[in-house]
Amino acid sequence: xxxxxxxxxxxxxxxxxxxxxxxxxxxxxxxxxxxxxxxxxxxxxxxxxxxxxxxxxxxxxxxxxxxxxxxxxxxxxxxxxxxxxxxxxxxxxxxxxxxxxxxxxxxxxxxxxxxxxxxxxxxxxxxxxxxxxxxxxxxxxxxxxxxxxxxxxxxxxxxxxxxxxxxxxxxxxxxxxxxxxxxxxxxxxxxxxxxxxxxxxxxxxxxxxxxxxxxxxxxxxxxxxxxxxxxxxxxxxxxxxxxxxxxxxxxxxxxxxxxxxxxxxxxxxxxxxxxxxxxxxxxxxxxxxxxxxxxxxxxxxxxxxxxxxxxxxxxxxxxxxxxxxxxxxxxxxxxxxxxxxxxxxxxxxxxxxxxxxxxxxxxxxxxxxxxxxxxxxxxxxxxxxxxxxxxxxxxxxxxxxxxxxxxxxxxxxxxxxxxxxxxxxxxxxxxxxxxxxxxxxxxxxxxxxxxxxxxxxxxxxxxxxxxxxxxxxxxxxxxxxxxxxxxxxxxxxxxxxxxxxxxxxxxxxxxxxxxxxxxxxxxxxxxxxxxxxxxxxxxxxxxxxxxxxxxxxxxxxxxxxxxxxxxxxxxxxxxxxxxxxxxxxxxxxxxxxxxxxxxxxxxxxxxxxxxxxxxxxxxxxxxxxxxxxxxxxxxxxxxxxxxxxxxxxxxxxxxxxxxxxxxxxxxxxxxxxxxxxxxxxxxxxxxxxxxxxxxxxxxxxxxxxxxxxxxxxxxxxxxxxxxxxxxxxxxxxxxx
Length: 736
What we know:
Strand order of the largest sheet: 4-3-6-7
Pfam families: Big_6 (PF17936), Endotoxin_C2 (PF18449)
Structural class: alpha+beta
Domain Pesticidal crystal protein Cry1Aa: 21-83, 92-153
Oligomer: single chain
Domain Bacterial Ig: 157-236
InterPro entries: Big_6, Ig-like_fold, Pest_crys_Cry1Aa_dom-IV
Number of strands: 48
Helix content: 10-25%
């Protein structure tokens, strides 16, 4: 039994081991399938390792039936796995082929193939999506992404091209753009021309000539058909030179060209088809060339170099002009025997040949206004004057005129006075005139073209006979004459002399402007002075005394006329009064009566002594009191003239100042007591006596002072010149 039990035990153990092996194998096989059910398909993601592991477990099962069952399920899984592997490899192969086909030469390491489309990339993506191997799928996806990036870049439109200017003579269009793209040129008529942009980014496309002002658009298209924005250019028309009309009288060819259309700097000038010269074009497009006079029918052409570098010979771009005839103007003015000049008008700056009685006299040139003249001197009645205008060496027009008798003109001699120094009048134009004074011939003068004449005779005395004789152009005799007698009366001649009062010596008055006035004192000539432009004269003769006789005379020629005299009135003055004075003194005409008042109240009457002095004991006075002296007119008995002074403080007495002077100054000035009498001296020589104004200011006109001279001003107090001020004249600064 023991042995049986042992056998039973071993058998049970074997059964248990077998059952365990079957269970493990069954579990492993079940795990190969979806939902662990061998009746289903193999699970997703099944691997060969899992099948191999399950096979190892099946190999441990000893029950033939169970083992066969398990093996059948495993074989099913193996078959499905093998089928999935085959499908994966096929999917990988298709995906790889599709991805490789996206690139040039099927090389994913290179660039995309030409003409690749998004549809091809999308189809390759669909095949990659069928690949289940993660590593292989990632590899394929990376290559496809590279293709997608390149395609995306190529699908961006190129930048618009740069297009060079084009003219209506150009046969190609040029510009710059993205290398490798195609330039598409759309012409105005809708036709298109294409060309490749080279590796340097340049393109040049042949086109037919275009009409000026038409438009051309240019785009760039890349290999994927993506088109740039268009660049539009307008065809510019080349300018045609314009030659100004030219006639046989012109000597210069000129014209213009529109340089704003095309930058023309030089033009070629041809005459009758033969190139003549190259001209520089101005900034304004103008050009000109001196040709001299050209014959009628001469052809002038102007051409310039176009964009091609050659001269444009097409008529559209060539300026043309033909020399034409012109109505040549030539006018010869009528002439009389009185005319000295042959005159007329013609073409500006042209030569005119002048002949008299068939004899060539001169060739003259008209000025810029066309005027010409020739001094022919005297011609006689019947002379034939001929003028010929020349164009080059040829006579273009001839005109003639016959010299006629001059129109009779009355001889006129203007009236003369002793103020005149010139004989004047009118006569036959250009006539010879002989001037006689008191029967003596002095000169022969010629009247101008208007008949006016004049001769300076100098000053003539009253009664002088002036005769003018006119020469007969035919006989040569002076057979016409007129005579005038110089008059001593001068209309409008003026001379006045202002009243004078001692001691001041300023002589003044009015006189005809510009005339000289002679001044005498007591029969002695003291000065000659000239009336200014306003008709005033003035001169300082020095100190005058009452009774002096001053005379003024105006000079006309060599004579002194209109003598005017004034008797100097005696001095009537009141000396300065201080608040300490008890007596007042002054000057007045001898024997005259004066009335003294203080602050408007009459105080006394006194008589001037024989020396012209008066004195009065007035008593106490105060600063500011006004002392008034009135002079009685013996004829009327009335007190008419007066002088007055204000009493000043003793502390202010004797004050005199004088301003600095240079040799350029003409006025002596300063300050002293109000109404003070001042004597002015130069280097010790008394010049004049002046009176300060009521504020004490004084001034005196003086001329011709010199550096280092001493100017002295003395104040008269109580009849005596005492306090003084002086200054030495200095040199004025030199102005550079």
